[in-house]
Amino acid sequence: MLEQPSHKYTRFHPLSLKDRTWPDRFLEHPPIWCSVDLRDGNQALPVPMNVGQKLELFQALVGCGFKEIEIGFPAASNTEYAFNRHLIEEERIPEDVAVQVLVQAREDLIERTIQSLKGAKRVIIHLYNSVSPAQRRIVFRLEKSQILQLAVQGTRWIKERIHRLSGTEVTFQYSPESFSCTEVDFARDVCEAVMAEWQPTPEKKIILNLPATVEVTMPNVYADQIEWFCRNLKNRDSATISIHTHNDRGCGVAATELALLAGAARVEGTLFGNGERTGNLDIITVALNLYMHGISPGLNFGNLNELVELYERCTGMTVPLRHPYAGELVFTAFSGSHQDAIKKGLGEWERGERHLWDVPYLTLDPRDMGREYREVIRVNSQSGKGGVAFLLESEYGIELPKEMQREFGPLANEEVDRIGREVNATELRDIFFCEYVNRSDTWELQHFHVDGTEGQFRCKATVLHHGKPLQLTGESNGPIAAFVNALIKSGTPVFQVATYKEHALGFGSEANAIAYIQLRIGERSVWGAGVNTHIELASIQAILSALNRMV
Ligand code: KIV
Ligand code: ZN
Q1: 312 with 319: CB under 8 angstroms?
Q2: Do the domain assignments include residue 11?
Q3: How far is the CA of 194 from the centre of ligand 2 (A)?
Q4: Residue 284 sits in which domain range?
Q5: CA-CA 20 to 30 A from 183: which of 61, 223, 281, 414?
Q6: Cα 222 to Cα 218: distance, rounded to the nearest angstrom
Q7: What pLDDT, on the 0 to 100 scale, is given for residue 217?
């Protein structure tokens, strides 16, 4: 890092708003919520959701109570277009839910977007273009007046086509992208020009969505920008002011809450804050922050564990163990003094001695979200994979790779369900060893030897295959690859090693090593694990463990 960061970076110069009023306000009611999980969230996934996954998430969002849901960028890809059409044609959108679609100020994209909406009951067409100095200079190479014209032209192209959506209730939304890094008076001018073209009224408002596309300041600066904008916009009562924060400096939630104080009425964000870079605003956190102050958020997160499971399955992302409200460990107390205080507080509550929640360390009652308070990590059939992984690691030093946790978690739950009671760490370790390590159903290693110099290895191995000895030889650029080669030469269906991880188990020269290997055969992938005093042998056993589990 630089000794003098000021030689490279400079402070953002905020606008001056000496008579700001937002610091004296309180949040008293929830905003209008708009989920952008299926667009902003989806576009930031390493593997974007397919139509089936998007549909499942859409239904979950509807179940949570969202009335505005951005479903995609239909002109951007066939999958996005097909998803729109599917929702509309299969009548998956409840009457009281408006679907929102994003589009840039380009006539061909607008044309396709309008086509994608035919037959929908309620839509929000969301036009955006970036307005910040950096984007004007680097991306568009346009002057301010030309950027303003781009926004007006995009609005006009939409307006000219609206008659084709007869029978559809259309709301128009405009976002000056990168609002928070733009001269606020210029962003306001662009929005006013867009309004002049669209002609909203107090009865049929335009949505002006003012994004912190990249979070570059402290949240109070964003709040000032929002208050200034609200106070200086012509025909203010014809616009709903919406905010859309990202989390680059880790303050997305704070920026949203302060911006609500500053006059915004609508919030865009995602479940668990999924999105580009450090993510979008986590709507669940803001909603439950309101809830813990006694304000009904208008969204229902009464089954948060199920929502986490569905979200992780559809997006492939994980909710961190300590994520506000939803993380697996946030209602577990490890410290004795915390446990004691919570126990006493809960006792007071259970005995009905207080009518308002005031339990030390628990900002709200986990049961309201379908969760429970725990003193120690225990694993039962309802536990998530995080608790399972946590116990294996803290008690036995077994550091399961993230993706393997997804495989082992449900297997452990099934076994615990079969046992019919909670299990302790030792029992959990036994379940793990039984499932992965101590397996010789089809394959068993008898002997393994490898010779080699850099880049060229040759292995000789004896394995039992269905009890019959097989002599194997193989060559490649590493011991594992040589063994894989030897197996494939012997007629095993072709497979690849997709993931490999190893570490020591314990300390000193007697340390056992554990290896985890994920094999892929065609579409299928399966994990294996091996434990041995030699890491090479642990890896070879992990391969056979995966093959044993493949059949
Ligand atoms: O972050 C952003 O600016 C966006 C816009 C398209 C609203 O996602
Ligand atoms: Zn965004």
Answers
A1: yes
A2: no
A3: 20
A4: 32-315
A5: 281
A6: 7
A7: 97
